[in-house]
């Protein structure tokens, strides 16, 4: 699957590969023990916020989302209180000192009340440093609810929108069970671009049932006329149990075969490049300089907190739970929290955490424990290396020497493996002074190439 929407699902999808790397004794760049954070550096990271509600269930979607009887049934007051409580707790646990980006994802976060977005951002800026000139705050939005609220969201701190246009063919939008037409999608896009000309992105899905190359080209050419600087193109993934999956299984509809999918993707790369949008990750295209800060941090192995029902996070634990509970006991502890963080070790165990999935139990847990973490998995140095290797190699810049040093991975250990020599001879990987990367051809075949590179790391 070409779809790699940020890191939350990366851990799950990598398990088979990175488990193979456990205890393999990969040579470290510096032979001075386990990975350590640099002592004189500010601890910085990003925050992902999951808003779990949607107005309607799209036929292809298996994200963690809930459709209330009506939107009036959402207890906004309770949700924002819980989001604010949980972020305080996880900031404390992680010892995070500076936040580079916040991503409101979902579900449909454009259904949030703008004042709650503001309240959340206030909460974190009380506790963390922010470089306001570079602070990226993205909101995932559905066309029909952003139009009325865009200005308000901007006033409340949102400075980037990722709009779910998905398709420009009404019949396809119906089949996907979207609640907007192509015209409404384009209207919303024009409005977002007027307000945020340099930081509006949109999502399109390709490989839809019965989609032809000709109609896809027309969609891409149409959307590019709007002058976007960033676009995400996701290959349709048929997720088990979804209505789309059932229809395909019952033979009601079919999706393009692998060759046709590859043609749709190759054509997209060509059209994007013609319009000046480079593929900087398998599913993401941008005019150079307009790449998403948030996604780039995920891919380079940065730390991020996952807040809200079902959110995934990956960060080091620098303080402990009992201290976290005391944070909850006193709401106004901003100063104390940062002092504790400053005293604590900059290292700490790296953990992958998943919050409780369903909104109601998640809120209850947050109300009692001050966080709703359901699953904690220790991420070993080997796991982290495998994850960073995989995510960076899906990007245009690949695994740079700088990132390789941070994860203490010797580039020679990858490059000199016989299977990597083969990949080089096939024109799928390359190396220069900056690091190792997949070639354009390699990126298009990344799902086949990456497991070979990961296996090559085995002793
Ligand atoms: C979970 S959605 C949330 C955004 C918003 N609710 C929306 O639907 O526009 C994020 C993006 O993931 C992509 N996506 C979700 N399910 C997908 C699937 N089964 N195959 C490909 N892309 C998918 C869509 O392009 C979508 O815009
Ligand atoms: S695609 Fe977006 S709007 Fe549709 S169900 Fe999934 S999260 Fe909700």
Question: How would you portray this structure in words?
Answer:
With 459 residues, the chain is of the alpha/beta class. The chain has two domains: 20-297, tm_1862 like domain (pyruvate-formate lyase- activating enzyme), CATH 3.80.30.20; 382-456, Arc Repressor Mutant, subunit A (Orthogonal Bundle). Helix content is 43%, strand content 19%. The protein has 19 helices and 16 strands. The strands form three sheets. Strands 1, 2, 3, 4, 5, 6, 7, 8, 9 and 10 form a ten-stranded mixed sheet that branches. A three-stranded antiparallel sheet has the order 11-12-13, with no helix packed on it. Strand 4 (136-141), helix 4 and strand 5 (160-166) form a beta-alpha-beta unit. Helix 2 (76-94) crosses helix 13 (359-369). It is globular and about 60 Å long. The protein starts with 9 loop residues before the first helix and ends with a helix. 46% of the residues are buried. Mean pLDDT is 87; it is low at 1-39 and 323-345. S-adenosylmethionine (SAM) binds next to strand 5 and strand 6.
């Amino acid at each position: 699957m070409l779809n790699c929407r940020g890191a939350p699902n990366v851990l799950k999808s990598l398990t088979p590969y990175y488990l193979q790397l456990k205890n393999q004794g990969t040579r470290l760049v510096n032979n001075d023990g386990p990975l350590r954070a640099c002592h004189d550096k500010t601890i910085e990271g990003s925050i992902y916020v999951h808003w779990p509600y949607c107005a309607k269930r799209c036929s292809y979607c298996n994200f963690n989302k809930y459709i209330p009887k009506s939107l009036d049934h959402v207890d906004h007051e309770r949700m924002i209180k819980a989001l604010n409580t949980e972020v305080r707790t996880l900031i404390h646990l992680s010892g995070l000192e500076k936040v580079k980006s916040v991503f409101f994802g979902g579900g449909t976060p454009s259904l949030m009340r703008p004042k709650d977005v503001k309240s959340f951002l206030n909460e974190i800026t009380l506790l963390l440093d922010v470089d306001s000139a570079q602070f990226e705050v993205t909101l995932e939005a559905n066309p029909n609810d952003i139009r009325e609220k865009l200005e308000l969201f901007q006033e409340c701190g949102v400075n980037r929108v990722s709009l779910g246009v998905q398709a420009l063919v009404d019949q396809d939008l119906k089949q996907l069970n979207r609640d907007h037409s192509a015209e409404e999608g384009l209207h919303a896009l024009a409005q977002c671009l007027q307000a945020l000309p340099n930081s509006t992105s949109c999502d399109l899905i390709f490989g839809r049932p019965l989609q032809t190359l000709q109609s896809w080209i027309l969609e891409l050419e149409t959307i590019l006329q709007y002058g976007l600087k960033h676009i995400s193109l996701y290959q349709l993934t048929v997720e088990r149990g979804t209505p789309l999956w059932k229809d395909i299984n019952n033979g009601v509809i079919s999706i393009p075969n692998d060759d046709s999918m590859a043609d749709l993707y190759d054509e997209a790369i060509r059209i994007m490049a013609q319009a000046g949008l480079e593929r900087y990750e398998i599913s993401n295209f941008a005019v150079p300089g307009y790449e998403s800060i948030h996604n780039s941090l995920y891919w380079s192995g940065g730390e991020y907190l996952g807040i809200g029902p079902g959110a995934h996070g990956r960060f080091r634990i620098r303080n402990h739970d009992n201290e976290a509970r005391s944070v909850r006991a006193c709401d106004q502890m901003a100063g104390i929290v940062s002092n504790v963080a400053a005293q604590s070790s900059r290292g700490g165990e790296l953990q992958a955490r998943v919050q409780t999935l369903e909104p109601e139990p998640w809120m209850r847990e947050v109300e009692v424990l001050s966080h709703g973490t359901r699953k904690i998995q220790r991420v070993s140095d080997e796991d982290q290396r495998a994850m960073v290797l995989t995510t960076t190699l899906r990007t245009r810049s690949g695994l740079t020497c700088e990132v390789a040093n941070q994860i203490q991975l010797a580039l020679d250990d990858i490059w000199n493996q016989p299977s990597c020599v083969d990949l080089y001879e096939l024109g799928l990987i390359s190396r220069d002074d900056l690091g190792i990367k997949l070639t354009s051809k390699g990126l298009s075949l990344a799902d086949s190439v990456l497991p070979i590179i990961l296996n090559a790391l085995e002793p």
